[in-house]
Write a structure and sequence with these properties.
The structure is a single chain. By secondary structure, this protein is of the alpha/beta class. The chain has 6 helices and 19 strands. Strands 1, 2, 5, 6, 7, 8 and 19 form a 7-stranded mixed beta sheet that branches. Helix 1 (11-22) packs parallel to helix 2 and helix 4 runs parallel beside helix 5 (180-188). The chain binds flavin-adenine dinucleotide (FAD). The site of flavin-adenine dinucleotide has 37 residues, from helix 1, strand 2 and helix 6.
């Protein structure tokens, strides 16, 4: 019986694990892939306070090495379900393993939905991005495009407009799902150019993205945009296929947590991108992980 089992070895899960091992807790960290999570999908990270710049894989290795100085079980398995009994949790994995735990921390992250445009997968990190806060700075004074019409797309367009030369906002409808205030603010900025009823027909590439061809879905007319970056915001999906039914979620499936990362199930905590939150970043995931680790420890003390 573990004091705590943590699901997911991204920044949130590894931060939670670090705090729990330092509290002397007997823990298992379960990860289905390589430790690091989404950090492994980014080449350069430049926005972790106190670290000027670091490669994604170096950050992942460094988090894991710090943890490996302590005694804990690292298990490469995919968690497929979690059951709550009256006294503890039972976790099942894809390979038929069963883990027992007094507390569980879900830190399984989220994934960006793809827009399905040409070259999207191959050029992610080479001009295609899903995160303006992460990558916007690489496009300082350059023209970029934003794809989407919801709050995230509009918020990111507004953020980018402050640092890039111009933002081409491409949205397949002529009305926006985003709050009116964001649309009005974007329309008031001279460097946000609206392309409604439009879709990305092609992404022009050399070694990096060099432009986009957009098509008006009503007239069929095409236009070439000289953009160096394309930011896609068509939604994000939490990795929650294995969580208990009774765990409270929002309409998009993200897990609802209180300030101390507690959920509606006592002893079950959540951290990082998988929970309902506004800013999904490495530093915020680490902060969540620290809080969840401390909360799980507090729960165990009061058991
Ligand atoms: C391309 C890209 C670039 C980014 N750049 C930056 C940046 O520059 N700066 C920044 O601050 N943020 C950046 N981000 C965002 C940042 O990486 C995330 O906010 C952060 O990694 C979230 O951490 P997490 O631990 O919550 O989740 P994740 O990093 O998603 O980790 C979750 C882990 O859980 C594992 N997992 C999921 N389900 C299961 C299961 N059932 N069983 C076992 N394991 C499971 C996954 O394999 C994964 O390893 C970027 C994201 C992307 C995609």
């Amino acid at each position: 019986m573990y004091d705590s089992v943590i699901v997911g070895a991204g920044p949130a899960g590894m931060s939670a694990a670090l705090y729990l091992v330092r509290f002397g807790r007997n823990i298992a960290l379960v990860e289905s892939m390589t430790p690091g999570g989404q950090v492994l999908l980014t080449s350069e990270v430049e926005n972790i306070p106190s670290i000027k710049e670091i490669k994604g894989y170096e950050l992942a290795d460094s988090m894991k090495a710090q943890l490996d100085a302590y005694s804990y079980d690292y298990i490469t398995e995919q968690v497929t379900s979690i059951e709550k009994t009256s006294s503890h949790f039972i976790l099942h994995t894809a390979n038929g393993k069963t883990l027992l735990a007094k507390t569980v921390i879900i830190a399984s992250g989220a994934r960006y939905k793809r827009a399905g445009i040409p070259n999207e997968v191959e050029f992610t990190g080479k001009g295609i991005s899903y995160c303006a806060l992460c990558d916007g700075n690489f496009y300082r004074n350059l023209p970029v495009a934003v794809v989407g019409g919801g709050n995230s797309a509009l918020e990111e367009a507004l953020y980018l407009a402050r640092i890039v030369k111009e933002v081409h906002l491409i949205h397949r409808r002529d009305s926006f799902k985003a709050a009116r205030i964001y649309v009005d603010k974007a329309k008031a900025l001279p460097n946000i150019i609206f392309h409604t009823d439009s879709v990305v027909e092609d992404v022009l590439v050399e070694d990096m993205v060099k432009g986009a061809i957009i098509k008006n879905t009503k007239t069929g007319a095409t236009e070439k945009l000289n953009v160096e970056g394309i930011f896609i915001y068509v939604g994000m999906q939490p990795n929650t296929e294995f969580i208990p039914q009774e765990l409270e979620r929002d309409a998009s499936g993200f897990i609802v947590a209180g300030l101390e990362m507690e959920t509606n199930i006592p002893g079950l905590y959540v951290a990082g991108d998988v929970r309902v939150k506004q800013y999904r970043q490495i530093a915020t995931a680490m902060g969540d992980g620290v809080t969840a680790g401390c909360s799980a420890n507090h729960y165990l003390e009061n058991e």
